[in-house]
Structure prediction request, 379 residues.
Amino acid sequence: MKNLLLILSLLLLTISTIGQNSYEEIGIYGDYHPGLALVMKNGLYGFINTSGKEIVQPKYKRIEKFGENHPYWALVMNDEGLGFINSSGKEIVQPKYKRIEKFGENHPAWALVMNDEGLGFINSSGKEIVQPKYKRIEKFGKNHPDWALVMDDEGLGFINSSGKEIVQPKYKRIEKFGKNHPDWAIVMNDEGLGFINSSGKEIVQPKYKRIEKFGENHPAWALVMNDEGLGFINSSGKEIVQPKYKRIEKFGENHPAWALVMNDEGLGFINSSGKEIVQPKYKRIEKFGENHPAWALVMNDEGLGFINSLGKEIVPTKYNEIEKFGELHPEWALVKKDDLCGFINTSGKEIVNPQYEKIESGEKIEGVNGNKKSEIKKP
Prediction:
């Protein structure tokens, strides 16, 4: 009976206190915070506790639930902007922002904020850790494991997880770290494309029109292009092959350790150290092993010939046609010069001088001139 009288007394006291404040609306206790009820007076919101005491004066145009944007705070809004209050009603972040995102949304312990100057961050104590001055801020970890991409009037850059500007915003474009090189990111300014490393240092000066992925054309290099042509940079950012070629094919495509290159003079090869192993001078180069196990067929204005696996011209370019080794003879290749047929051997020596109108193969190999046939025997 005594307990019932006590509860009734408290209830009457609460109703009396609430009545004195003349609230237009009183919400459900615990809906926004345990032990608090949202109240509205003159169109503005505040909080009362279970005793009816006004914990937060009704002065906000909007109040969100505690824990919705910050584990212990509630988002509030007045004529000045958005801010935060704690469960004691203290204004922990002065309402002055046009936008506040959830804590942990863009950074594990910060909230993105926006005012008239731009975007920034506040930390979990309510302190402005990154001054709002950026036009754009991306999530931490999206482009670099520990940084966030930022943009101001000068361009793109990065801030680190302490809020420090680690890469000055000056680039027109920044790609993800690891996309083109395991530890670097492609950057672009008015001069061209380059790379920054994971410390924010410009490791390759932006000057190229095109940069391909490392390992795409050579296991440890990246293909680059400028106004002069195509070349390569190595994994330290050094220009290992001067950009001067009109075309560069993949290493290993035509020769196990070389890449086919082309300039105004013709086709040639560079080796895996970037050295020009076959001077570009040919109109056509076929794959090594296509016509001879260790040679490549080449052509210039004089005709067809062969280069060996060291890049040396082993068969002079003087023939109109060269067939595959083994087609008519196990160790020879048919050659034609001035419409006459002959043979070269696997050492590149002219074993049968081009003298026949045609060569036939059956039980024996015969050279044909008119109606006359002559057996061709190995010398």
Remarks:
- Residues 51 and 346 are 106 Å apart (CA to CA).
- Helices lie at 2-21.
